[in-house]
Amino acid sequence: MIKRATVISAFLVAVIPATLVFADGLAGGGGGVMSTTDGAAGKVVETATAGEYTYVNLEKDGKTAWVACPVTKVNVGQQLAFTGCTPMMNFESKALNKTFGIIMFCGMPLSQAETELLSKKSTGSSGLVPEAKEKIVVEMVKAPNAYSIADLYQKSEELDKKTVVVTGKVMKVSQRIMGWNWLHLQDGTGTPLQKNNDLVVTTKELPKVGDVVTVSGTFARNRDFGSGYKYAVILESASLQK
Q: What confidence score (pLDDT) does residue 37 get?
């Protein structure tokens, strides 16, 4: 049974169509490409657990947004925050017998301290990509199909749908979103200003933040998840090389 509560003002950060709300002017990367790895925070007004997911409805100023995360205990009235989310359009939950116009698939909710921090500051578009606190220097492996992250952006058209190898430092991990773990890798090439320094990778494996890993996967450019949600570049179904 989905629980209900009186609507209470809360904070919401999400990359969602203008028919809902853009909080703090939050939008995706340049060139009209919108990020699919964002976050949401707010007060729980509805929740239900079915199948592999707990569904949470977050509210701000009378507007709501749905989040799905791995099964966890959630209470109506609780303040929650999520990061590393991926939007899905017209998602049908057979377990709930409900179709969501848009829903954000996220990892586990943040801790209370992290939730309070997220609710107090505006992340802005620069908050979509993890920011390195130190200079990153990662040596590229020697292989015919090995590339730096900046190279992948520069050669995205010719490398589209090809297998590539990349070595980078794990800057962020979002677990169990649509059956995959989502990594952000950086290798010291490219710049935040040019938006070519960070690579999103989907994998079944689970390295830790701070690990330097070499991954092999299928490279794709302008990966479209529908309704304008795209990655400029992404490495999919990747495996970690030993």
A: 41
